[in-house]
Design a protein that fits this description.
By secondary structure, the protein is an alpha+beta fold. It is 53% helix and 14% strand. The chain contains nine helices and seven strands, in the order H-H-H-H-E-H-H-E-E-H-H-E-H-E-E-E. The strands form three sheets. It has a three-stranded antiparallel sheet with strand order 1-2-3. The protein has a two-stranded parallel sheet with strand order 4-5. A two-stranded antiparallel ribbon has the order 6-7. Strand 6 and strand 7 form a beta hairpin. The protein is elongated, with a radius of gyration of 22 Å. The relative contact order is 0.12. The mean pLDDT is 89.
Length: 230
């Protein structure tokens, strides 16, 4: 879940000026609150002193992450469908670490937080639910499907950045991503990468591709980089 939160944080910080300050302020309040909870005899009054900043900035994070997921979901679903050739259905959903009543969540979880010596509700528990054909991707997706999900979400991220930057497409650095994909998915991925982005792609071999639509191709031979196509 931490990696999936980082995925949202990277995009949020790029497209919304309020995202990074809210994230940093929330993290500071959370560290201080957890430090008190880990003390030998945590005092409820001292712990509660950090509830206000935690709630203030946590609500901002919860809202922004929900909005990001709402924007990303259709883009990721479309990218997955293109890479997989429509063989499976992908779904993406935001799982908040707290309800709309964040203050009430903190109060109700106080005893358990004292027992576990950490804050157990809040945006630091946010996650993304990933499903393929209505099944949990974490439990049931093959390696190829998992790689397809990761690529689809990155393409969605690129599409979102383009929309946020007045149509200016980002540079895509794609490093050796074909290993777990069958030839059909590899070809579909190359055919469906954002057309208006500059792309730098590496691979250990490409015998599954009869024709490479690239401006320039290099090969590593004897530790030297040799241009094989202009």
């Amino acid at each position: 879940s931490e990696a999936r939160r980082r995925y949202l944080d990277f995009l949020g910080a790029q497209i919304d000026g309020s995202y990074r300050p809210a994230l940093r302020a929330y993290e500071r309040a959370l560290r201080a609150r957890n430090a008190l909870l880990k003390s030998p005899a945590p005092r409820a009054r001292e712990v509660a002193a950090y509830d206000a900043p935690l709630i203030e900035h946590g609500r901002v994070l919860l809202r922004l992450r929900a909005e990001l997921t709402e924007m990303l979901a259709p883009l990721a679903v479309q990218a997955y469908r293109q890479i997989s050739g429509g063989r499976e259905k992908f779904a993406l959903r935001f799982l908040p670490g707290a309800s709309d009543d964040f203050r009430g969540d903190l109060e109700r979880s106080h005893s358990e937080s004292i027992r576990l010596r950490q804050t157990i509700v809040g945006p630091h528990r946010d996650d993304l639910e990933l499903r393929v054909d209505q099944l949990s991707a974490a439990q049931f997706a093959s390696e190829g499907q998992q790689r397809t999900i990761a690529l689809a979400m990155k393409i969605a991220q690129a599409d979102a950045l383009k929309k946020a930057n007045d149509g200016k497409a980002p540079l895509l650095l794609i490093d050796d991503i074909f290993g777990e994909l069958d030839p059909e998915r590899r070809n579909a991925l190359l055919d469906n990468l954002p057309a208006d982005s500059q792309k730098l792609v590496t691979a250990t071999a490409m015998p599954w591709r009869d024709e490479i639509a690239a401006d320039t191709i290099y090969q590593m031979r004897d530790r030297r980089l040799i241009r094989v196509k202009n």
